[in-house]
Design a protein that fits this description.
Blueprint: H1 63-77, H2 81-94, H3 99-112, H4 117-131, H5 136-148, H6 152-165, H7 173-202, H8 215-222, E1 233-236, E2 241-244
Antiparallel strand pairs: 1-2
């Protein structure tokens, strides 16, 4: 059974079947409320029918990838999460169709907790589930990532789907704790919205956040795609436009 905050490394014992297929304030809903089936490019798996995956399942890891995974698992247990992520990266390059590797890397991202790590973990959980819909921990971590990213309604929907798909874990301690945390967030959000509504009534000239967002902007935000590649720096020599990524304020390079 899942244990409280069980973001540990996944072993093959948890996946005996076939393999067919952000607390951080990093992700927000960009000022709009997205439906469950469209959260900035992610679609949660609804019902029992699963979408076709672009990945072909990998029954077993090549020897080199297996060795990298075992070493990554070892350093993960020593809480060397950055090294574990680097090793999982190498293993994924060799075996990109392994749901276990994506699930393990998601756990390492969640444990490390740098800026953007929870969102990266969510992406890995989504990929792991697209490869292996029966990846129990990837599904549970997806719900936790959505909660950490303050997508509260989506996280509750995802957790309810987890309970329906894996009833043997529906009342585990970790599942009950996450359900309690999510519902506490929903309750807090409801109180906050009521306070904002009261303040708006007493201050009619006060412009609320989101009032100046056009319908076209909302559509663009709903249809925004996830990043595919990131560069440390970029310079467009034609138009002299310079861009750079911010990697965090604690030396997370």
């Amino acid at each position: 059974a899942l244990q409280p905050h069980d973001n540990g490394v996944v072993s093959k014992a948890h996946h005996s079947g076939a393999h067919p297929t952000p607390s951080t304030s990093n992700g927000v809903t960009n000022g709009i409320t997205a439906k469950l089936h469209h959260t900035n490019g992610f679609s949660l798996l609804e019902g029992k029918q699963q979408p076709r995956s672009p990945h072909k399942p990998s029954a077993s890891l090549p020897p080199r990838a297996e060795a990298l995974k075992l070493r990554a698992n070892e350093v993960f247990c020593r809480q060397q999460f950055s090294l574990a992520i680097a090793l999982y990266n190498q293993a994924i390059q060799i075996a990109p169709n392994s749901g276990i590797l994506y699930g393990n890397r998601a756990a390492a991202y969640m444990k490390r907790g740098w800026d953007g790590d929870i969102y990266s973990a969510l992406r890995d959980c989504h990929t792991a589930l697209s490869i292996d819909p029966n990846h129990i921990k990837a599904h549970f971590r997806l719900a936790r990532c959505l909660h950490e990213l303050q997508w509260t309604k989506e996280s509750l929907d995802c957790l309810n789907q987890f309970r329906g798909r894996f009833p043997e874990h529906a009342h585990s301690q970790a599942c009950d704790m996450l359900d309690k945390d999510i519902k506490a967030s929903l309750f807090s959000k409801t109180d906050h919205d009521e306070d904002k509504s009261t303040k708006s009534d007493t201050s009619p000239n006060r412009r609320r956040q989101g009032d100046n967002v056009s319908d076209a902007e909302k559509t663009l935000r709903e249809n925004a795609l996830d990043y595919e590649m990131r560069f440390c720096g970029h310079c467009n020599t034609t138009t002299d436009i310079k861009e750079a990524n911010f990697f965090g304020n604690n030396g997370q390079y």
